[in-house]
Amino acid sequence: MKTGIEILALIFLAGASFAQPRVHLGITTGFNSTHVLDKGLSTDPRYVAKANYEWAPVGASAGIDFTNRFGLQIESIKAAQGQIYQMIETAQNIKTMIAERNIDLSYIQLPLLMKMMSGGNGPARFNFQIGPQLSLLNSGSEVMKCVKDANINLEEGGDIPLDVTTVIVENSSDVPLEYRQALASGEVSPPSNNELEIPISYFEDMENPGQYNMPENSMMTLMNSEVESGIQKFKEKEVQLAFGLGMDIDVLKHFYISANVRANYSFTDMRNQDLIDMIGDEDITSIFNNRANLLVGAQLGLHWIIGGNRSFKAKKEAEAEDIFR
Length: 325
Hints:
Layout: H1 2-15, E1 22-38, H2 39-43, E2 47-50, E3 53-65, E4 70-91, E5 94-117, E6 124-146, E7 150-153, E8 166-168, H3 177-185, E9 197-199, E10 211-214, E11 219-224, E12 237-252, E13 255-266, H4 273-279, H5 284-290, E14 291-305, H6 310-323
Antiparallel strand pairs: 1-3, 1-14, 2-4, 3-4, 4-5, 5-6, 6-11, 6-12, 7-10, 8-9, 8-11, 12-13, 13-14
């Protein structure tokens, strides 16, 4: 947030050198379609991406219009992003969902936008915005929940960190015999003082390495922003490109509403370098495309403008001209 305040101060200092700049403050909300563009999951025939929609419940904006055609704007938006991937099993040409992989992320987004506007003093103006965006992670999790008993292939060296992943089962009857014996002998301790949370290695089929027998309603925590393991953490910051197209409409002397189609795309992988190193992908261009956030949505805002809006000024000038004719 300190970074956003410093950028905002620079905007206003720069505006002081322009004649009659228009300063505006606003609040926004939005409804978005969010996607996690994962190269591995999108090319894996077992996974099907499910449509995902999220509210951006509250945001704030501040900016300055240097001229009728150009301005700068900074925003602070609390936004949810993520994606749901369904794992599909095909047997005798019948497809059945066996698990659901849910990536859930919450960010404070700080876009700094150049705003190009249609000129004139009319009550409605089109605009195009583009600029960099810094996204700060509030919380994040990636879990896989099995909706039925399933035998799942999890290859060593894949995108699931098998050494640290645990499985939470619903019933004590689903606890593997080997794990119960290890607990009884004191050989192991529950990862979180919960005997129903079990290292994933105990579910591996010894006769078929890489195959894991997962019980119904079991849940794997693959990544989480609150764990200690660097492999399972998300990056705390992301650099993105934000852009949009919309319209500003004057409604009162000091207020206008905005309606925009907004999008942002991340240039950096959302995972930590520890996990990228584990996967073994050394191609930097491939890394950038392995786990990218994409958001496309609609944004509405209410803005207060200092000194009055364009159409109000034009109307007053026209009235003044009529008086002196």
